């Protein structure tokens, strides 16, 4: 005669119980006391959806549902007076029938409900939160209140990408995403009237269903965003900042906003080398690399419309905000020349180095970031060259000009005057600016340009006869070499310093041996000033 309620399963968590006025979705099996089934929502493949306490149910069911939790199961015995009474339901329920219902509550909401947000993880740093008109990328698991999964971006292995607050989402999700930080995780519970309403989505989501989204926000930007720059390390000394048209060498780590690494120059053990402001890199990087110093470290945050856009590239998903942590190794401009800074110059600086001079000097060679490349000090010997003869890179030939013995200077050489784009494998990186700290220790004056040997006094009028010691009218290389060596040893002549004696002499002999027969005759033999005069007369 009385309502009987048996709670056969009660979930551990019951954040909310049915109250009069709530809307519920539940499954049931209806039977008589003898076990005969008269109705079942399972057979129809849909829940029974109804308001509680508003007279839409038989009185016993209205009472039995109050206090139920989602996923709770109750066995309900309803006497006739709280069911269909003495009249019953013709053809279905006889008069004065006791009814048994096995009930499982699936869903529960109230028309006064709002979107519920429960944040269960929030990053320590949250520089920015989702606002209306922002574009977001997030992962989610979508379930019903009973925990049944209906959709997951994780299963598709692709984020859900959308604008917020402009109607691209169901209203409840539009609300639930507001105020989120990148990296934040929250559970958003949405009543059906802020989701897919009475009709559902026609696929996985039934009508009048509450939805639960477990969301992690991966990315956030606004179409109006420009790049953001965070200076991490700026050298105390910054004599020059990069400008449009400069060529930069820099290292970088490239990540997404959630910290996922997509690329790194460090892993390749090679800098990224490019012109700035010329469109060789994405627009955001072109802008972010302007105004940097050598040695500077900065973070450049680039929105997708200044990065790889909606399509993305490689490991970079579409519409992704990019974060580059860069370290500028060096930069130069193709119009740069050699830069010379004199640190010490002796007071008696009268003899200056010039083309053709033989120089002995010490140096330390490094990159602009201070990385040591080479040092004569470590070898314990000087570096010796003939200035202007191509024995060193062009920038060094220029940097050693007009230097006096004892002088110390720093010479900065751009790559187009150094080792160029290729560098020296294993020693000098390609497109590297070089820094040489130089001390000139010895200078031997060279000969006038174009001369490998000069006389210190008057030239003998019988020069050919003196060289032709056996007086046979022909001079061989051995005779020629012996004569020149004697002139140098006695101080009567001088060879260009810094060159191999035999090579110079052979070169001089070859110039005189005009017919190439290995012998020089009196007719062939001419001094350099005589050659110049004949050429002039002929012209």
From TrEMBL:
Sample GO molecular function, one term: peptidyl-prolyl cis-trans isomerase activity
Enzyme Commission number(s) from the entry: 5.2.1.8
Protein name: peptidylprolyl isomerase
Gene: Fkbp9
Classification of source organism: Eukaryota, Metazoa, Chordata, Craniata, Vertebrata
GO annotations of cellular component type: endoplasmic reticulum
InterPro entries recorded: EF-hand-dom_pair (IPR011992), EF_Hand_1_Ca_BS (IPR018247), EF_hand_dom (IPR002048), FKBP-like_isomerase (IPR051989), PPIase_dom_sf (IPR046357), PPIase_FKBP_dom (IPR001179)
Domain of life: Eukaryota
Residue ranges of domain PPIase FKBP-type in the record: 21-109, 133-221, 245-332, 356-444
């Amino acid at each position: 005669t009385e309502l009987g309620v048996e709670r056969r399963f009660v979930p551990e968590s019951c954040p909310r119980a049915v109250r009069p006025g709530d809307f519920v979705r539940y499954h049931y099996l209806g039977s008589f006391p003898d076990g005969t089934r008269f109705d079942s929502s399972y057979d129809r493949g849909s829940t029974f959806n109804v308001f509680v306490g508003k007279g839409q149910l038989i009185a016993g069911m209205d009472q039995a549902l109050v206090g139920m939790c989602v996923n709770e199961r109750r066995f309900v015995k309803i006497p006739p007076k709280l069911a269909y009474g003495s009249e019953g339901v013709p053809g279905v329920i006889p008069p004065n029938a006791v009814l048994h219902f096995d009930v499982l509550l699936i869903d529960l909401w109230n028309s006064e409900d709002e979107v519920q947000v429960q944040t269960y993880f929030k990053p320590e740093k949250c520089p920015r939160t989702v606002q209306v008109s922002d574009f977001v990328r997030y992962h989610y698991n979508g379930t019903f209140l009973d925990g049944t999964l209906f959709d997951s971006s994780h299963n598709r292995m692709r984020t859900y990408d959308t604008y917020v607050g402009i109607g691209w989402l169901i209203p409840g999700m539009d609300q639930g995403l507001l105020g989120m930080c990148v990296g934040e995780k929250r559970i958003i519970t949405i009543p059906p009237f802020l989701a897919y309403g009475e009709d559902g989505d026609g696929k996985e989501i039934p009508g009048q269903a509450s939805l639960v989204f477990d969301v992690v926000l991966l990315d956030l930007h606004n179409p109006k965003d420009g790049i953001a720059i965070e200076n991490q390390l700026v050298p105390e000394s910054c004599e020059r900042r990069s400008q449009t048209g400069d060529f930069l060498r820099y290292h970088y780590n490239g990540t997404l906003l959630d910290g996922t690494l997509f690329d790194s120059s460090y892993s390749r053990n090679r800098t990224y080398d490019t012109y700035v402001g010329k469109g060789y890199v994405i627009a955001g990087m072109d802008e972010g690399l302007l105004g940097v110093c050598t040695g500077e470290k900065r973070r450049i945050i680039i929105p997708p419309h200044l990065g790889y856009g909606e399509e993305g590239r490689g490991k970079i998903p579409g519409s992704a905000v990019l974060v580059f942590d860069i370290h500028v190794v060096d930069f130069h401009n193709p119009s740069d020349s050699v830069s010379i800074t004199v640190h010490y110059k002796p007071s008696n600086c009268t003899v200056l180095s010039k083309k053709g001079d033989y120089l002995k000097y010490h140096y330390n060679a490094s990159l602009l970031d201070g990385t040591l490349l080479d040092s004569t000090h470590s070898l314990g010997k000087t570096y010796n060259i003939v200035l202007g003869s191509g024995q060193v890179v062009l920038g060094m030939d220029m940097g050693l000009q007009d230097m006096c013995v004892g002088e110390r200077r720093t010479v900065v050489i751009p790559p187009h005057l150094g080792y160029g784009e290729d560098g020296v494998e294993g020693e000098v990186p390609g497109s590297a600016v070089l820094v040489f700290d130089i001390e000139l220790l010895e200078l031997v004056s060279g000969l006038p340009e174009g001369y490998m040997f000069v006389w210190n006094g008057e030239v003998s009028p019988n020069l050919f006869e003196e060289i032709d010691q056996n007086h046979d009218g022909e001079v061989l290389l051995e005779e020629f070499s012996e004569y020149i060596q004697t002139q140098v040893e006695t101080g009567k002549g001088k060879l260009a310093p810094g060159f191999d004696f035999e090579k110079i002499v052979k070169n001089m002999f070859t110039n005189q041996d005009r017919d190439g027969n290995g012998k020089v005759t009196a007719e062939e033999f001419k001094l350099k000033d005589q050659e110049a005069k004949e050429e002039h007369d002929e012209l």
